[in-house]
Design brief:
Radius of gyration: 21 Å
Oligomer: single chain
Structural class: mainly alpha
Number of helices: 4
Order of helices and strands: HHHH
Helix content: 55-70%
Distance between the termini: 18 Å
Largest sheet: none
Length: 119
C-alpha cells in the first residue's frame, strides 16, 4: 500500500492509530473531501465577515472556485497528453532499458495525475 493512494482508514491503520479489533466510525473519503473543501473556504474567507470586505466574500469565493476549476481542466489535459505519450512510447518500444524506464515513468505520472483529477 502506497501512502499517496491510501484511503482514510488505511492511513489511520498505517500509523497505528487503531486498537486491535476497534470499530471506529470513519466517514467515507468523499464526505471527508467535502468537509475539507468547506473548511478551506471558511478558513480563507470566514475572517472577512464583519469587516469592510464582507461584500467581497462572494466574488472572492467565486474567483477561488474558478481557479480550482481551471486547474482541474489543465490537469485533465495533462492526463490526456500523458496517455498519448504512453501510447507513443508503447508503439516505439524497442526493448531497451531506457525506453522501458521512460514508459514506466509516464505510466506512474498518468496514475498520479488521474488520482489528482478524480479527487
Amino acid at each position: 500500500m502506497a501512502y499517496d493512494t491510501a484511503n482514510t482508514y488505511e492511513t489511520i491503520e498505517l500509523f497505528g492509530l487503531t486498537e486491535k479489533d476497534a470499530q471506529l466510525p470513519i466517514p467515507e473519503d468523499h464526505v471527508l473531501s467535502d468537509h475539507i473543501i468547506r473548511e478551506s473556504f471558511e478558513s480563507l474567507l470566514g475572517q472577512l465577515r464583519g469587516t469592510g470586505l464582507e461584500a467581497e466574500i462572494e466574488p472572492l469565493a467565486h474567483g477561488l472556485a474558478t481557479i480550482l476549476q481551471r486547474r482541474k481542466v489543465a490537469l485533465g489535459k495533462e492526463v490526456d497528453r500523458t496517455a498519448d505519450k504512453i501510447g507513443a512510447l508503447a508503439k516505439s518500444h524497442d526493448g531497451s532499458e531506457i525506453a522501458e524506464t521512460a514508459l514506466d515513468e509516464a505510466q506512474a505520472r498518468f496514475v498520479q495525475l488521474r488520482e489528482i483529477v478524480s479527487a
